[in-house]
Design a protein that fits this description.
The complex is a heterodimer.
Chain A lengths: L5 H18 L8 H9 L5 E2 H4 L4 H12 L6 H8 L6 H14 L1 H5 L4 E2 L23 H9 L2 H10 L4
Parallel strand pairs in A: 1-2
Helix pairs in contact in A: 1-2, 2-4, 4-6
Chain B lengths: L6 E6 L1 H5 L5 H13 L5 E8 L6 E4 L1 H10 L12 E2 L9 E4 L10 H11 L2 E6 L3 H4 L6 H17 L2 E4 L2 H14 L6 E3 L18 H7 L3 E6 L8 H6 L1 H6 L2 E7 L6 H8 L8 E5 L3 H10 L2 E4 L8 H8 L4 E4 L2 H7 L4 E3 L4 H13 L1 H13 L5 H15 L13 E5 L3 H14 L5 E6 L4 H7 L5 E6 H5 L8 H15 L5 E5 L3 E3 L9 E2 L2 E6 L1 E2 L12 H15 L5 E2 L6 E4 H10 L10 H12 L4 E5 L2 E2 L19 E3 L23 H37 L5 E4 L7 E3 L4 E4 L3 E8 L1 H5 L4 E7 L10 E4 L9 E6 L5 E10 L7 E10 L1 H4 L1
Parallel strand pairs in B: 1-2, 1-5, 5-6, 6-7, 7-8, 9-10, 9-12, 10-11, 12-13, 13-14, 15-16, 15-18, 16-17, 21-25, 26-27, 28-31, 30-36
Antiparallel strand pairs in B: 2-3, 3-4, 18-24, 19-27, 20-21, 22-23, 28-29, 31-34, 32-33, 32-35, 35-36
Helix pairs in contact in B: 2-17, 4-6
The chains are: A mainly alpha, B alpha/beta.
Chain lengths: 161, 815
């Protein structure tokens, strides 16, 4: 009997199902590599480490399926076709910048973590001011922007509630 | 009368609660769960996914019952939600997935490893494997989600419940194709006595029923989708019409059937010999059933076949596909035909028409059919859950009276013995494994209650050479001990400096038939003292690698407190892995992770109970808080001036020991609080950052096509004053592997003057399997500056730099 890693088992299952799809004259909309990424992704974020090793076409499909949470549409696939021959880091940077800046992504953002690529953020840079009492006003605003549950927890820890 | 043990069961009903329509699976989940809530053997906790998808809200029972029995109120209740995360589930409980878990955002590939790590028993309900065996019949989203779910179930489920033997056979076939050992599987057929859903005032479709009253018709009920094979029956309309039989489809158009819907609409006999009742009311469905010649069920594959049961409840005969699962449900009462052949269907209909007496007998048989009840199904499922994860564990109740210590330090042992003597009254014997020359002094000096027994190093080792390294030697000796020493079957293993702080009885180590196993960390996250790894650190790394290679959990059980050991399980581990004795694993973590994976019902894993581990609160970041402080991991140095236990006694004095222990516990709690406050402050910063930037603040050193090395840093970092802060730097393997690679870091003021010293870390000194740790000791006064990082791969190569704004603020200022 075999011992599988999580990824190996999901790939093996997909390969079996893909054989059956092909026998019925169909095929899956994603490759085995993309499926393995989809099976491994966390519920609340996508780690770039999962996407990074994919070749460009698979990377394109995986970004849509994980960050936008839908298969790529035909128009978008055609749009990106000409750039699939770019070096992988260039293609990945270009694609991610496009997707992360899109309104569709911003409407339902799935956080992308562990990504060292030089992605452009449209959120303004923070500037820090130190006020006389040593407590930066920015920090007060950090606290004020926290969800209420975290504010309550913070006060409880500090013994202020 | 002894109270009955109760099994705690968590059930995730996210799909039931969150989808606006009810599928067959949700009907099953509802029928079973409503009954389980009344079962006194179970303590059921109902869960529903929160929008973050990493936690649940707990559904109040009364609100749930009212909503799903009286269609009133909300299943969530009116009070603010109580939330629970997977890491907080009770370790000896069952997690029972009966809803359509493959559709849930909280992916089981993410959830199940956490539950396994926690020791929760996972039971998955398997309705069928059709999306794996015939994926072409499903929307690709559904098929891929189901595949991912199936993979998680095969990998992690402790037990599977199926509703048909055909499904169990399919599971075994699939596992055979994958060369996998199938999880244990129990077959529990579904009930069939659904409560009528008709509003008593609702009337069936009068026009349709009036038209059909003139004819005999065959009926297909259910969603029109490829697998159900409506096409076969539609193709038979003309031939059936010649027999005087009409065809009625009742249901809604399902996935990928637009073309078929057009075909139905344009059928020449639509409205005369063929009728499609689109999404009919329940009253119409009931009337259609009652008046049908027969229900036709030509499906290509099913998980159960509830339509057969529904037809029988109306006294209507069934013509069903001749496939194993339908033969299980339909038994001798249904009539079977080849679902790939229109001719076979026609022959079956002709047979019904040919003999009126036989046909009426079929109707009587159908009417006499008594389906299995949901009460029976729910009771069987409850019994299965109680058996799979008995609340009362299966650890043998052999006497627990022996403690075992490996020591070469007489003085340390003699100082600890009075504590064991006083606070562990159930221990009768201490087996001391030591050099023979140590024995006379021990015999001379100790005259307490506990009987000392000796097993010498010479007896243990014979001529076998000892490894030089401390932890390698330790593990090697323990393995030999298990094989050679006069050990009880179950005993307490300890080091010579673990002092109990209060009287403890056997239930601290074994309770309700479960060995209590105390963990303190996750081995995969143990970073050690980077740049200066101890023998202990290296042992943790080796143990993590070994456990990962065997797909075993990776909790760290070297919690620096005595723990209970089952000798047979330890020997079983050594038998399964005959070469590990010389590999320098951690003797506690290797054993407990192996044993708990092998015999989960024998154990209850929980956070540890010792103080002074870590010895200094700045030694390492706690991964979990000790749940209470029952043991002291004794360090002489902590009693010196300026240290945490200054002024307290190092020795056992019966008159003052209890008062001093309370004082020690109090002081240690204050130390723990300081660290937990820092952790909370960092969590606040991360939460803010995530809300602003939709990502975690991460420090990275990466390479790409354009830059051989480049820092990728957050926009801002916030650190507390007067603290030792640990930050993780993720670095590409190739940048770490260079022999001369060096990382420097420190905090500087905006004009470049140092706020903290610049630290230097040769990267070859950091274990390649562990993340790099940046250790910063922040000043006691608030200040802001820049966290500066520099990387150099070799002596004369270019310096790569990065920096980010760094604010150091007082915790109570932030909070």
């Amino acid at each position: 009997m075999k011992i599988y890693s999580d990824e190996a088992l999901s790939r093996a299952l997909f390969a079996l199902a893909e054989q059956r799809m092909q026998a019925a004259g169909n095929t899956f909309y994603c490759s085995e590599a993309v499926f393995a990424v989809m099976a491994a992704v966390a519920p609340d974020h996508v780690s770039y480490e999962l996407l990074k090793p994919l070749e460009n076409r698979d990377f394109l499909h995986a970004v849509y399926l994980t960050l936008l949470q839908r298969p790529i549409d035909q128009a978008a696939a055609q749009n990106w076709e000409s750039q699939l021959s770019l070096p992988s880091s260039q293609f990945q940077t270009t694609l991610l910048n496009s997707v992360l800046r899109s309104q569709e992504y911003r409407n339902n953002p799935m956080p992308l973590l562990d990504c060292p690529l030089p992605l452009e953020s449209q959120t303004p840079q923070l500037t820090i001011h130190v006020v006389n009492n040593g407590l930066p006003d920015r920090l007060v605003r950090i606290y004020q922007k926290l969800p209420r549950s975290l504010q309550k927890l913070a006060k409880k820890i500090a013994g202020k509630e | 009368m002894a109270s009955q043990p109760i099994t705690k069961v968590y059930i995730d009903l996210s799909r039931l609660c969150l989808t606006p329509f009810t599928t067959g699976i949700q009907r099953v989940a509802k029928a079973v769960v409503l009954r389980m809530l009344k079962n006194p053997k179970l303590d059921v906790v109902l869960l529903c996914d929160l929008p973050c998808h990493t936690q649940w809200r707990i559904l109040p029972h009364d609100a749930f019952i009212t909503y799903y029995t009286k269609q009133s109120g909300s299943p969530y209740g009116a009070a603010p939600p109580i939330t629970i995360a997977p890491d907080a589930l009770q370790p000896d409980a069952v997690f029972f997935d009966i809803d359509s878990a493959w559709n849930m955002p909280m992916r089981r590939s993410w959830l199940f490893p956490k539950l396994r790590q926690r020791g929760v028993t996972i039971v998955s309900h398997l309705y069928d494997l059709i999306p794996v065996t015939e994926p072409q019949y499903f929307h690709q989203n559904t098929a891929t989600q189901f595949l991912a779910w199936t993979s998680a179930v095969l990998q992690y489920a402790n037990h599977i419940i199926c509703n048909a033997y055909a499904t169990k056979d399919a599971l075994h076939t699939l596992c055979g194709q994958l060369s996998l050992t199938p999880p244990p599987c129990t077959v529990i057929p579904l009930g069939g006595d659904f409560a009528p859903q008709t509003d008593s005032k609702e009337q069936p479709d009068a026009a349709l029923m009036k038209h059909l009253s003139k004819y005999r018709y065959v009926l297909m009920v259910g969603t029109i989708e490829p697998r159900k094979n409506h096409a076969l029956v539609l193709d038979a309309v003309d031939a059936l019409s010649e027999l005087g039989i009409r065809v009625v489809f009742a249901g809604r158009i399902g996935w990928n059937m637009e073309e078929f819907a057009q075909k139905m609409k344009q059928h020449p006999k639509n409205g005369s010999d063929f009728f499609f009742a689109d999404t009919p009311s329940d009253a119409t469905i009931h009337a259609l059933y009652e008046n049908a010649l027969a229900v036709v069920f030509p499906t290509k594959n099913e998980g159960f076949g509830l339509p057969i049961v529904e037809a029988f409840r109306h006294g209507t005969p069934v013509l069903a596909s001749d496939i194993p699962v339908l033969r299980e449900v339909g038994g001798e009462i249904a009539v079977y035909f080849d679902h790939t052949s229109t001719e076979s269907l026609l022959e079956a209909v002709k047979a019904l028409l040919a003999d009126e007496a036989a046909y009426q007998q079929k109707r009587s048989d159908a009417a006499a059919y008594r389906p299995r009840t949901w009460d029976e199904t729910a009771e069987d499922m409850a019994d299965a859950l109680c058996t799979i994860a008995p609340m009362h564990g299966t650890a043998p109740h052999t006497p627990l009276r022996q403690m075992v210590v490996l020591t070469a330090r007489n003085q340390d042992l003699l100082r600890t013995l009075p504590y064991w003597d006083a606070y562990l009254p159930f221990i009768e014997e201490l087996l001391v494994c030591c050099p023979s020359k140590n024995i006379p002094e021990l015999k001379e000096a100790f005259h307490g209650r506990i009987r000392l027994r000796f097993f010498t190093d010479e007896e243990l080792l014979g001529d076998i050479p000892l490894p030089q390294d401390h932890t390698m030697r330790n593990f090697f000796l323990r393995c030999l001990l298990m094989q050679k020493a006069p050990l009880d079957d179950v005993f307490i293993m300890t080091d010579d400096d673990y002092r109990p702080l209060m009287p403890l009885d056997e239930t601290f180590f074994r309770k309700n038939g479960r060995y209590q196993a105390y963990y303190c960390y996750d081995l995969c996250q143990w970073n050690g003292t980077q740049g200066n790894y101890t023998s202990y650190d290296l042992s943790m790394f080796r143990t993590a690698a070994f456990l990962n290679s065997q797909h075993l959990p990776t909790l760290q059980y070297s919690s620096h407190q005595p723990q209970i050991i089952d000798r047979k399980l330890y020997l079983s581990m050594l038998e399964q892995y005959p070469d590990i004795a010389t590999t320098g694993l951690d003797e506690w973590s290797s054993y407990f992770n192996y044993a708990i994976a092998k015999e989960p019902a024998m154990f209850y894993a929980q956070p540890y109970c010792s103080m002074c581990w870590p010895g200094a609160i700045t030694d390492w970041q706690l991964w979990c808080m000790p749940q209470r402080l029952c043991f002291e991991n004794f360090y002489d140095v902590l009693y010196e001036e300026g240290q945490v236990f200054e002024g307290l006694s190092k020795e056992f004095h019966p008159d003052t020991v209890q008062r001093e222990h309370m004082e020690k516990i109090d002081r240690w709690h204050r130390m723990l609080r300081r660290q937990s406050n820092q952790t909370a402050a960092h969590a606040m910063y991360e939460a803010y950052y995530r809300a602003m930037y939709h990502t975690q603040p991460q420090l990275m050193l990466a390479e790409d096509d354009e830059h051989p090395a480049r820092f990728a840093l957050p926009q801002l970092i916030v650190l507390p004053t007067g603290s030792l802060v640990r930050l993780t730097l993720q670095a590409a393997d190739s940048l770490r592997n260079s022999n001369h690679a060096v990382l420097r870091y420190g905090i500087q003021s905006p004009n470049g003057s140092p706020i903290t010293p610049m630290h230097t870390l040769p990267l070859c000194d950091a274990d390649p399997s562990r993340a790099l740790t940046i250790l910063l000791s922040t000043p006691v006064s608030p200040v802001s500056g820049m966290l500066v990082l520099e990387y150099q791969s070799a002596q004369n190569s270019a310096l790569v730099t990065g920096s980010l704004p760094c604010v150091i603020a007082a915790l109570d200022g932030i909070l």
